[in-house]
Design a protein that fits this description.
The protein has 242 residues and is mostly helical. The protein contains nine helices and two strands.
Length: 242
Amino acid sequence: TRPTMRFVELKSEEQLDVQTLHRVRDRLVGERTSLTNQIRSLLLERGHVAAQGHARLRHLLADLLDPATCSLSARMAFLLGDMRTRWDELGRRIAAFDAEFSAMARTDERARRLTSIPGIGALNATALVAAVGNAATFTKGRDLAAWLGLVPRQATTGGKPKLLGITKRGSRYLRKMLIQGARSAMPTLAKANTAIGAWLRALLVRTHPNIAVVALAAKMARTVWALLRHGRNYEAVPQAAG
């Protein structure tokens, strides 16, 4: 009765466990970000501007909380010291999750295969394997990209289709991870003498870099589908001569 209905493959207990680990880690990262933003705002109120980056904020905190040179009130120094302790604890817990994901990526054949794709590390690979599985649910790579909300919305009027921004459907977490991975890999890929490098260079000439990043993330999603569906390893295609 519903010939066009699509069904999602049931996830195994292991897949659900890995997804839960990712959710917990993402919550811890959010707590750490919120905490460091609060530390920055408290310091700014007292005239201390912290440069971007965790390392610089830690260095500034160490200087301000040094008993020999501390210019803060006793109460403020105590509060900042307590917040720094909580920050360190969050960092240790996140690092423990990262180590577990790295171990998973080394032992799981599918995740190890995905880490060969530029821009995909252990975190992305384990999250994608847990969410997608063997990719048999999707007929083609574009279906996976659409499931992740990385394809453009289409508005048609008068028989003329117009492409808009991406749909942002599906898992926000997976989409964020792919886009972050694409952003980190794009500078290197754009310089490479490969087919994807030539495609990126041509794309960057005619569009904004942020749009190119999302387009690269969508292409990465299609590559993920191909590797999971057909059990292949990633191989960069050399740029065609001419």
